[in-house]
Specification:
alpha/beta, Rossmann fold
């Protein structure tokens, strides 16, 4: 039986284009950009992004920030992100390989650091030592930030849900750990998917989220799939 780690790593390694098609359909109302800009106004910032994937958040940031340095551990994701960024016409970005626990950037170089749908893998991939790995990733964020800089964490609060709820007990523990042990504030937004057809919804939801949610979409002929996303943030002195 394929482990969750092998499942996701297989997608990130072999199916970056399909993954990018999925995330391009996410957040149909554009709520994420507004929420980030409310937490920390983005204009003119130097940003370091952890776990950038195919660059969806990188593209959002690039229209406002001074520079965004985005990293991912998977070469195929970086290649896809670079292609999308070149097509965007923006030039204020850099993409490179980087591990969430050790970013290849100088200390105190960023006004804002963030991750999107990356840090939460720690509870599924490393169930026995996720707190230590979490501490290390957050310490790396703090190292990179200038005094007064802000760290932002973006993770799922349920695909297929209209109200937020951590999809598993392990994720609930992680989110509580961020707030209770590391002092992060929390809010949530809707980031619903909108697909071009029920068939596209079935294809892309099944590919990443599995048969149960995809079967429900197909049965209802849905092209809009609700989703809740959590945002955690902290300003470091």
């Amino acid at each position: 039986m394929t482990s969750r780690r092998d499942f996701f790593q297989g997608i990130y390694h072999n199916q970056a284009e399909q993954f990018d098609r999925l995330v391009a359909r996410e957040d149909r109302q554009g709520n994420l950009f507004g929420a980030l800009n409310e937490i920390r106004p983005l204009h003119g910032l130097r940003v370091v992004e952890f776990g950038a994937g195919t660059g969806r958040v990188t593209r959002l940031l690039s229209v406002m920030v001074d520079t965004v340095y985005a990293f991912d551990i998977e070469p195929s994701m970086i290649r896809r992100a670079a292609s999308a960024m070149r097509a965007s016409g923006m030039s204020n970005w850099r993409l490179s390989l980087g591990d969430n626990g050790k970013m290849p950037v100088a200390s105190g170089c960023a006004d804002l650091v963030l991750e999107g749908w990356s840090f939460a893998h720690v509870v599924g991939w490393y169930p026995n030592d996720w707190p230590a790995r979490t501490d290390a990733m957050l310490a790396e964020m703090r190292r990179i930030l200038k005094p007064g800089g802000v760290a932002i964490l973006i993770e799922t609060m349920g695909t297929g849900r209209r109200q937020p709820r951590a999809p598993s007990a392990s994720l609930r523990k992680l989110y509580d750990y961020w707030q209770e042990e590391h002092g992060f504030a929390y809010r949530w937004i809707r980031t619903d998917y909108q697909f071009s057809s029920p068939e596209e919804a079935d294809e892309l939801i099944r590919f990443f989220f599995g048969d149960e949610l995809a079967d429900d979409c197909l049965k209802r002929e849905n092209i809009i799939v609700p989703e809740c996303t959590g945002i955690w943030w902290r300003r470091f002195a």
